Amino acid sequence: MMNRIVAFRFGEIAYFTFFAAVAHAVFFVENMVVPKTIDAGGPSTPVSLAIAINLLLLTIFAVQHSVMGRQGFKGWWTKLMPTSLERSAYVFVASLVLLALMWQWRPLPEVVWQAPSPPIGTALTALSFLGWLIVFTGNFAANHLELFSLQHIGDYVHDSVTPEPTPLPHRLARRLTYLGFIIAVWSAPIMTTGHLLFAFVTSVYMLVGAAVKQTDFIGQFGGNYRYRERATWLVPWRRLISTGTRDS
Q1: Full-prediction pTM beyond 0.85?
Q2: Which domain does 71 fall in, by range?
């Protein structure tokens, strides 16, 4: 029982750390509220060094997500900790990496392009927040307790297994949250060099990572992975599906 209590508490810490990091990331990208944003704050750094540091930070972020998400790493990782804590550990480490990225980010404020008028700038900001809304809606409509590890731990504590139906938004597109993120980071009223670097690298990583993960799902589930045949990959355009296995 003590192990289960510790597991649940660690899951709670990972869960709330993740949401604190993501909430901070929204304001970081939108250049508001937080003291250091994607375009302002931090030490003055030469452009070439700033680009190198930012690319290193983005690479660490991508490697952490990719390596810890692979089945081979999970198999090794769960030899060192209970399986019920594997997702919590992933979420917690990912949150710390994201916070470190924002902490050490070097702004590159040179303007690449910007909205030609204030109304268009306001519309782009609204579109960006719509993208974030899609991200959060997709995560919460999916079983976000499972996605962020609390479902696994809850099942462990209560010695049960919770079924996972395909949520409504994910019947429209398997990677709807990725679409929301891409909309959010590219809909900038002022696109700076640093923002462009962040948007380009993260978008490419998401698209490549999603393709690799889909290959893993096909290899893992084989003929049972029929969801991909009924829901589009990124942009919703097919008829709404009624059943299937969610690709999260």
Answers
A1: no
A2: 2-229
